[in-house]
Amino acid sequence: MTLAEVLAQDSRRLQQDLDLDPREARLEIQILLCEALGVARSWLIGHDREALAEPAAQSYSALLTRRLAGEPIAYIIGRREFFGLEFKTTPAVLIPRPETELLVELALARIPEDQPCKVLDLGTGSGAIAISIARSRPLAAVTAVDQSPQALGVARDNAARLQVPNLCLLHSDWFGALGAQTFDLIVSNPPYVEAGDPHLQRGDVRFEPLSALASGADGLDDIRRIAAAAPQHLNPGSWLLLEHGYNQGEGCRDILRQQGFSEVETIRDLAGLERVSVGLRAA
Ligand code: GLN
Fold this sequence. Notes:
Layout: H1 3-18, H2 22-37, H3 41-46, H4 56-68, H5 73-77, E1 79-82, E2 85-88, H6 101-108, E3 117-122, H7 128-136, E4 140-146, H8 149-161, E5 167-171, E6 183-188, H9 221-233, E7 234-243, H10 249-258, E8 262-268, E9 274-281
Parallel strand pairs: 3-4, 3-6, 4-5, 6-7
Antiparallel strand pairs: 1-2, 7-9, 8-9
Helix pairs in contact: 1-2, 2-4, 6-7
Residues 97, 189, 191-193, 205, 213 line the site of glutamine (GLN).
Domain Methyltransferase small: 107-196
Binding site for S-adenosyl-L-methionine: 123-127, 146, 174, 189
Family: Belongs to the protein N5-glutamine methyltransferase family. PrmC subfamily.
């Protein structure tokens, strides 16, 4: 079969089996073909009349089998792009999501380019947020923590490959290992899905670490914990930025106000959904 035929046939199969939209399915098959052939997508597009020959055919077929069983593309190929950088991605970490780039942008808007700033990322996972911030703000000193040693290992690999001298990775359950350290900005994409949400049993999410997704009956347990402890770790006049679910803006704003934060507001993502709430620790 030619590459074009494989693409047409297997996109349809993926679309049906995993209930993907046709463009998504086609893109995913292209990604798997490129992985098996060791080529870039631009090459594939120009050479799609060539046959899918061994040994690539066999490795492609193994990759396709994994995808048809539901495993997310980012775990199969072991990487995902986020904020223009490539992150190693294993089942120990949440797969970086495009909507989380909003959190990075909002953080960068509050970090000066020309002076030092102490930044903390809570629950860093792959390190996507912390590394994106550290690379964009070389003068900032970024600390990133995670309670999962396996996740920290992935973050360490990413930090080493992407060369981020201004990042410190630490094993910590939220603020647990940070002592009395204070910061000029705290950012987090914590777990925030309701424990009983059927979303957790479907699609790619089933393969991701539950500890990075679910957070009690209303999904806000970890946000409550973070917001309660954050004021002691924020210098006066500093911001806390939290990602949350599209229906948790009001809940998150209430929590931030209860903890004494001012200038509390929620920012919508590109899909128009409430996604990040921010609060200021008054000076
Ligand atoms: N946005 C993710 C999802 O809906 C959840 C990420 C998180 O809990 N931090 O799958």
